[in-house]
Design brief:
Length: 126
Amino acid sequence: MKIFSLVIVLLIVGTAATALLRGTGAPQGPGQYDEFALCLKDKGAVFYGAFWCPNCNNQKKKFGSSAKLLPYVECSLPSGKGQVQQCLDKKIESYPTWEFTDGSRLIGDTPLTQLAEKTACSLPTI
């Protein structure tokens, strides 16, 4: 009986701790690069990547919570083998690939300053 009571107490404490660590669930404010990410999209830039690509994940990390606003196209099939048709049609061979309205591309983990120069989008001052 003591073990059962101890297990119940530990479950309650664990649940409470998990709820506290997750925070209040209140929506976060705008991300630092929200306007920049939206400008990239407005200027017609497209970010092609794959979920399994470390450089793609590094590129997204540079945008922090604003990454959700990027004009991102997932090229990988869920199996991680092969590409979706859109990426095959665009002949995307490396990840990440940024494509611009003039047809030019930047390949690899691209500095935000280079994306800003290429698109004339303003980076926020930190």
